[in-house]
Design goal:
- Helices cover 76% and strands 0% of the residues.
- By secondary structure, it is mostly helical.
Length: 136
């Protein structure tokens, strides 16, 4: 159950905050980025979809939970990197660093999402799946 909650915290919640609300665009524009760079930041959400296709073509890992936790750690590191770059990077590395960290976050979250349902079936009981998580 902890792995499922960790997946939600590093997967869907930041995705909704950064992309559905447009926070990634506002962040890049407020830091002095151009409109093209802001749209690149918004389009990094699609990197996750490409990563999930890439991960689903690979054989299923033996330890799916460990794989998802590693992906969550890499995605979380991408979010931390975005915060670090925002405060401590030189001005010429600011926007490229943010774009790279958002891409890293979405790639890791997308790679983990390919194995979300198989892991969820192993750990969450049938009766509790519709309460917090999707029903299958």
């Amino acid at each position: 159950m902890r792995a499922a909650i960790l997946g939600q915290c590093t997967g869907l919640i930041p995705l909704q905050v950064l992309y559905a609300g447009g926070l990634a665009v506002v962040m890049v524009l407020s830091l002095g980025g151009s409109h093209v760079e802001a749209m690149v930041a918004q389009s990094t959400v699609h990197a996750g979809y490409l990563a999930s296709v890439w991960a689903s073509l690979k054989p299923m890992p033996k330890d799916r939970v460990l794989y998802m936790m590693r992906c969550s750690q890499v995605g979380g590191a991408g979010l931390v990197l975005a915060a670090v770059v925002t405060y401590w990077a030189p001005s010429f590395l600011l926007i490229p660093g943010i774009l790279l960290s958002l891409f890293l976050y979405r790639w890791a979250a997308g790679a983990a999402s390919a194995f979300w349902y198989p892991v969820l079936q192993d750990f969450v009981d049938e009766g509790e799946r519709g309460r917090v998580f999707y029903t299958m």
